């Protein structure tokens, strides 16, 4: 096997392993919602008692569902969108908040 073919084979194997790990660690809709509730809580009131109680009440009422969020699973990563705008991105077990103003309008 040529040197180029060997490197290509290793690249394909590493790509397949990364895709498998991404698939296994793809965050769920609940993971996205939990991270977003935490970000909104920090933005609104920090870690105070009222902010914590408000976040818990919003979770119980499922306020993000009422706000019209849309979860998209792309197998190796996932997103939550609202009105076509990406709010969170998740990959490899982590969720990153792009726009935490979704629950504040």
What would your notes on this structure say?
This protein is an alpha+beta fold and 105 residues long. The chain has one domain. It contains four helices and four strands; from the N terminus they run ααααββββ. It has helices spanning 3-24, 29-45, 49-61, 63-66, and strands spanning 69-73, 77-82, 85-91, 94-97. It has a four-stranded antiparallel β-sheet with strand order 1-2-3-4. β3 (85-91) and β4 (94-97) form a beta hairpin. α2 (29-45) packs antiparallel against α3. The longest helix has 22 residues, at 3-24. The chain is elongated, with a radius of gyration of 18 Å. The relative contact order is 0.18. The model has no long low-confidence stretch (mean pLDDT 82).
Quick synopsis:
With 105 residues, the protein is of the alpha+beta class.
Give me the secondary-structure topology.
Elements: H1 3-24, H2 29-45, H3 49-61, H4 63-66, E1 69-73, E2 77-82, E3 85-91, E4 94-97
Antiparallel strand pairs: 1-2, 2-3, 3-4
**Gyration radius from CA atoms, angstroms:** 18 Å
What is the total domain count?
1
Shape: elongated
Q: Termini, distance in Å?
A: 60 Å
Spatial ordering of strands, largest sheet: 1-2-3-4
Strand content: 15-25%
DSSP summary: helix tally:
4
| Main β sheet profile | 4 strands, antiparallel
Task: Give the quaternary arrangement of the chains.
Answer: single chain
| Helix percent band | 40-55%
Mean pLDDT: 82
> Which structural class fits the helix and strand makeup?
alpha+beta
Pattern of helices and strands: HHHHEEEE
List low-confidence stretches. none
In total, the number of strands is 4
């Amino acid at each position: 096997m040529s040197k180029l073919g060997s490197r290509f084979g290793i690249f394909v194997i590493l790509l397949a392993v990364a895709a498998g790990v991404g698939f296994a660690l793809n965050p769920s809709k609940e993971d996205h919602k939990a991270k977003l509730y935490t970000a909104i809580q920090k933005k609104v009131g920090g870690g105070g008692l009222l902010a914590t109680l408000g976040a818990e009440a919003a979770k119980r009422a499922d306020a993000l569902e009422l706000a019209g969020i849309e979860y998209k699973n792309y197998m190796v990563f996932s997103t939550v969108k609202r009105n076509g705008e990406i709010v969170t991105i998740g990959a490899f077990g982590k969720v990153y908040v792009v726009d935490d103003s979704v629950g504040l309008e």
